[in-house]
Design goal:
There is one protein chain. The protein is of the alpha/beta class and 458 residues long. The protein has a single domain (3-292, 355-446), classed as Amidase signature (AS) domain (Amidase signature (AS) enzymes, Alpha-Beta Complex), CATH 3.90.1300. It has helices spanning 3-11, 17-35, 43-58, 102-109, 152-159, 176-182, 216-226, 270-283, 294-312, 314-319, 326-336, 340-360, 393-396, 402-405, 434-446, and strands at residues 38-41, 70-74, 113-118, 165-170, 185-188, 208-213, 257-260, 288-289, 366-370, 383-386, 389-392, 411-416, 423-429. It has an 11-stranded mixed beta sheet, with helices on both faces. Strands 10-11 form a two-stranded antiparallel sheet. α8 links the parallel β7 and β8 (288-289). α7 (216-226) packs antiparallel against α15 and α9 packs across α11. The chain is globular, with a radius of gyration of 20 Å.
Length: 458
Amino acid sequence: MSALDIARAVTNKKSSALEATEAALARIAKHNPVLNAFTDVTAERARAKARAVDEAIAAGKNPGPLAGVPFAVKNLFDVKGLPTRAGSKINRDLPAAARDATVVERLEAAGAVLVGALNMGEYAYDFTGENIHDGPSRNPHDPTRMTGGSSGGSGSAVGGALVPLTLGSDTNGSIRVPSSFCGVFGLKPTYGRLSRARSFPFVYSLDHVGPLTRSTADLALAYDAMQGPDAADAACTTRPPEPVSGLLDQGIGDLRIAVAGGYFEKSVFPEATEAISRVVKALGVNRTVEIPEAARGRAAAFVISTSEGASLHLDRLRTRPDDFDPAVRDRLIAGAMIPASLIDRAQKFRRWYRSRVLELFKSVDVVLAPATPCVAPKLGQVNFVLDGAEMPVRAHIGVHTQPISFIGLPVVAVPVPLEPMPIGVQIIAAPWREDIALRVAAALEREGVVSAAPPRGI
């Protein structure tokens, strides 16, 4: 069932929050041994919360728009009583969190029920979903394949229908890549739209948080519940909440939609081209635009990500280097050695690039682009051959997401259910226009062009 269906059934007393919770816990117990999506299951906490929701309904109180909806969060979000792992070995030595992350608190205030924490790439520096400490999260459509990262457990848990809602984070593509590989919907909001308070950072100036679900309506429902200012996150906007759930049926006849050409047409496998073609045809798009200097945008994103990420981990790199995933450790060490002059150039370019892309949004409302260049690669796959050239899988997965998150634009990733594996398309809008991107996603879902396919591998 979708989150929306569960909430309606619980609120209308056709089922109970405890029943929904027990069903989710049973699915986790059955399928997580294969998917390895969960690192922690908070069963007793979940049951207590579910009983509280049911008691509120019995007393005639409003349980909230997410009444009884089971959800889980990437293990970089603070969960009271658990150490915040952030996918690492080192963080397991931290004291248990004393309080939930803001977005977790807000979802539970809306009636949702937290059932656990999810596997992820170490310190969120990952595009594959392969964690050497906890093992890889596995793709629900083919467990021999990657989930994508770094929110790999988040994509796997929703794609495998263990829960209808998860939270992830996205610095360079870590919501959109798992959404694409696992065939689910994901929302990376505008930078600063949702609070990151009490979540473990990767790159402060690039980190976003957002939901993954099996429908556009569920994305909107979760997004609305999490909106609002938060003084505990200096980047979080002071804008009041701007609900979107009531706007999904407005249609898209008034929207100016274009497909990204140039850079975004290159380095893609046929599956990505087919997915874009289906979406473009369904929307009747006949305009192509080029996002200026996207390749340089990606290069600058690399510089800022690895240098800023390295600065966060310098003490850990000095004192516990052997406890890192070697691939993560070596990239962070490389980031620590980037000259300040190069970082300064990347930041200056970032400002210029953002202004140029915002100019583009004066003439269009939405830009479509691939979410990933390919369907999910095999676990452990190091390279693939594209256009006659051998390319590294890990570095190439984010080729289409990094130039967008780099400047904080809102994006909805929608799943195109190709056979045998799904793949995603990005719906990109101007800052603070999540409503527009979600309207387009909803229109595509109504047309049957995008959907979260039933898990084929479990």
